[in-house]
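Hi there, hope your week has been kind to you so far. Thanks so much in advance, here it is:
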Amino acid sequence: MHVIAGKEYSRSIADRKNISIIDAVSIVAGMVIGPGIFKTPSIVAAHAGSEIVTLSLWLIGGLISFIGALCYAELASTYPNTGGEYHFIVKSYGKKTAFLFAWARMTVIQTGSIALLAFVIGDYASEAFRLGNYSPSLYAGITVLILTAVNLYGLKPSSKLQKILMGGILFGIIFIVAAGLFSETSGISAQSNIQLTEFALGQAMIFVLLTYGGWNEAAYLSAEITSTRSGIVKVLFYSIALITGTYLLTNFALIEGLGFLNITNSETVAADLIEITMGSGWVKIISIIIAVAAFSTVNAVMITGARSNYALGNDFKTFKFLSRWKEDEPAPVYSFVFQSCIALLLIALGTVTRNGFVTMVEYTAPVFWFFFLLIGISLIILRIKEPEKARPFRVPLYPFVPVLFCIAAAYMLYSSLVYTGVGALIGIAVLISGLPFLLLKNN
């Protein structure tokens, strides 16, 4: 059944099979390929220590994403529901665990993602026009305020504008790849002195898989693809192959044009590559393109985050205020305002720690991978609990594939706990702060 904010509707999502494989691939790629690819290559390279290891880690990230996507495809096609991951957790673990997931999305996962993406915009906007010592943080805060106002006043970017902004990200990638591959000059290509220790591997993979993030949202299309069983496999394979190829090519171009050692010391790899290959006059142009284009990604996260908060308000009385959405209002106002306040507090936290983007990655990673692990396990739980349930798509090589995904998720959870800094501890503390609400009569 189709569930929206706790209400059931008779029309099943599975009745609508109107998304072609090509359309689904473009949707998946559009959700995953974002501004992170302009920020994370330098961090990954700094931990990897060599060109071949760097490229190998990006390839491994694609393989892990594909394995995880197969698991999500079975869950999404078997239990098609607008609640998505929340619905899987309810069925597997009950409403108390599902509440913690909703709490985590509201206070850590979605808001942390908004803040870290806003910091990417801030870093590149500062390359064009710097606003003093706290320029990235100021731009990040302005981004949140502008997009909140845009959504509250009903001036949401149209579908056409969103496509234009996404096109800006793709243009930036193409521009960077061309600059790197066809440049006549090259930076220093020597390897760094860093060895790939367990610590370095764990930190590198956190940022690699962050950049691959988004395919889990795309798996919800599985019930609407024209050929459910064969179609979803093709969509997952083609889209993640496309994404992986894009990331490998982008990193290779950066290495060729900027030089490996220069990458490891760069805060804005795209701008630095353009400065080396084309001159400083082009730096502002590419920086502005990347910063403006990234607005589409932040806006999408804000829209979905506010609506999941709205659903939380409908399901739990303590947060009833989040479900206020009058007919004459273009958006769930209280959900947007509450979400934006948390995001601004996180931007302030990133400013205090002096490395906003990295702090926000640390803040979200442990909580994100904890629930990712639970969802991976839920596939096995639901196979046991409902063995007769019709499954339009079944994970191949069961239980090897879901167990492999759970192992990967468990390793990432371990890495995000052991190999990160204060941001991770704060994120865990915020998640735990949701536990007292379970003692209240919430529903």
The radius of gyration is 21 Å. The chain has 17 helices and two strands.
